[in-house]
Write a structure and sequence with these properties.
With 248 residues, this protein is mainly β. Helix content is 9%, strand content 55%.
Length: 248
């Protein structure tokens, strides 16, 4: 078999687990919680040469209701306000959890995202919106906001916290013989973003210890606002913004 014939996007051949770009997400419900944390605690989770820009933490919890290739699943992306000086600014993901094997595979193999299995969800109970993340039978994140009291735009929420449009990730892949294969900072953006509605109100955030989901190591010092929005977007190719193995 030639290299061209063997240049598959993912395995197994004929039924790949990871989806190729682009693929689209429709009917998405997102609750983003914000709070301020201990700056030194956040800096411990950033790989150099990334720099921390503020003490904000964002926890995005998604109901992905209709996604190409992956179907319906839920995801939780924790972000820190970071920059690669002179090259990129965005939200760096130290922790990311979801309940889709294809989503975990695509995120780890392609983006280098630190994806692990977990059970996030956005739920509605009367006049409250609830975001949660469960792993190992422990609810490690519980956040709430009042149900649709004040309209606000995504840009207004970014102005209150930080611009998370670009997602930065530390991609770590080794060869089977133990040698280093890939060490990169990658970035991804979204296209065809359409917002159906968005709301901003104060939020509560509670974290519980779990050594397999150690978000609690970013302690809540001051709660901010939450943004709840519905919409759709398309995931497209990203770029390598820093390659640790490239000489010169």
């Amino acid at each position: 078999m030639s290299l061209q014939e063997n240049n598959h996007w993912s395995t197994p051949i004929g039924a790949p687990l990871a989806a190729p770009f682009p693929f689209s997400f429709r009917d998405v419900e997102v609750l983003t919680l914000s709070y301020k944390t201990d700056r030194k605690a956040a800096e411990k989770l950033l790989p150099a040469p990334l720099k921390l820009r503020s003490d904000w933490v964002l926890i995005h919890i998604y109901n992905m209701n209709d996604t190409d290739y992956l179907g319906q699943y839920q995801e939780c992306n924790v972000m820190l306000d970071a920059e690669l000086p002179g090259k990129a600014v965005g939200g760096y993901s130290p922790f990311l959890f979801l309940n889709s094997d294809g989503g975990i595979s695509q995120g780890r193999e392609v983006h280098g995202q630190p994806k692990k299995w977990g059970n996030p969800k956005v739920d509605f109970n009367g006049d409250l919106i609830i975001g949660s993340l469960e792993r190992n039978g422990i609810e490690v994140v519980n956040g709430t906001m009042a149900y649709k009291q004040n309209r606000g735009t995504i840009q207004e929420f970014k102005d209150m916290t930080f611009d998370f449009s670009v997602n930065l990730n530390y991609k770590v892949i080794n060869h089977i013989n133990g040698e280093t294969a890939i060490r990169q900072i990658t970035s991804r953006n979204l296209e065809n973003v359409k917002i159906a509605e968005s709301w901003i109100d104060p939020c509560s955030v509670a974290l519980r210890p779990n050594m397999q989901a150690p978000i609690y190591k970013l302690p809540v010092l001051e709660e901010g606002h939450a943004c709840f929005w519905k919409g759709e977007f398309t995931l497209v190719e990203g770029e390598i913004v820093h390659d640790y193995l490239r000489k010169g």
